[in-house]
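Quiz preparation item.
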């Protein structure tokens, strides 16, 4: 078996490997996003209809262990924000790449019709983001 490859063959092999990592990284990141959105909506509905409404911060803190476990199940790696190379799908990296914060979560829930209480500084930012999404029934803080 002759393993002599010319430059064009090496470029094709490396490009193919990069393309495979690119496609798999995007696919895994979209699985994490879909799982996060589903989880936030499910838990947000439960919190909204419970007798004692937890704050956005409490809901976010309560979701963390389940969210981190979901990341480990759905992704081994995602693409770096430059989308040129893969990075491990650790909760810290995914949180930074996806911007998964209490402010994001509160705004996402509000845009989808679920308003939970939050600290004053967070509430202002949540309303500001929801207004950018052109939600008509957002009250002014």
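Solution:
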């Amino acid at each position: 078996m002759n393993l002599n490859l010319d430059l064009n063959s090496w470029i094709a092999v490396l490009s193919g490997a990069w393309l495979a990592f690119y496609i798999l990284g995007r696919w895994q990141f979209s699985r994490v996003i879909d799982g996060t959105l589903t989880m936030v909506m499910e838990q947000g509905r439960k919190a909204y209809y419970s007798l004692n409404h937890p704050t956005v911060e409490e809901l976010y803190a309560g979701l963390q262990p389940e969210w981190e476990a979901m990341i480990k199940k759905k992704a081994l790696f995602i693409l770096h924000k430059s989308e040129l190379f893969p990075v491990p799908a650790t909760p810290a990296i995914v949180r930074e790449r996806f911007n998964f914060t209490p402010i994001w979560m509160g705004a996402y829930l509000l845009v989808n019709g679920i308003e939970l209480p939050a600290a004053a500084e967070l509430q202002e930012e949540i309303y500001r983001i929801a207004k950018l999404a052109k939600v008509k029934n957002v009250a002014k803080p």
